[in-house]
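Transposase IS204/IS1001/IS1096/IS1165 zinc-finger domain-containing protein: structure tokens wanted.
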Amino acid sequence: MRDTDLFQMALGLTPPWQVESCEFAAEQKRLDIRLAFPRGSVFVCPQCGQADLKAYDTTEKSWRHLNFFQHEAWLTAKLPRVKCDHCGVKQVSVPWARPGSGFTLLFEALVMSLPGPCQHEAWQSMWASMAPGSGAW
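Answer:
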């Protein structure tokens, strides 16, 4: 089994999303998983639900995911925007994160399960690590 197939199944990705590549940097204790969609894929307008919209353009975004053993894991994807007949150009929603979040839903759920004071410290630490110039983006 290829690493991309393994992570595809582990992340529970469904079409059109797929794992394009994985890079493991032992020295940095980091796993980077790149997600993509095939050319010609169609999406739904996140505002009104109009279906079968092709990508208008894309922008790259990364999300902090659950650790892979003791290594940080990051998901990166070129997020499509669609041009809806009713709503104009809109960024599509992804199944692994809330709109505008830099964290996956599973990562946010883990932090929310921490006791109150730990939760606050964890959020502060994570946001500090993602600040401009930190290298996280």
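The longest helix spans residues 116-129. DSSP finds three helices and six strands in the chain.

Cheers.
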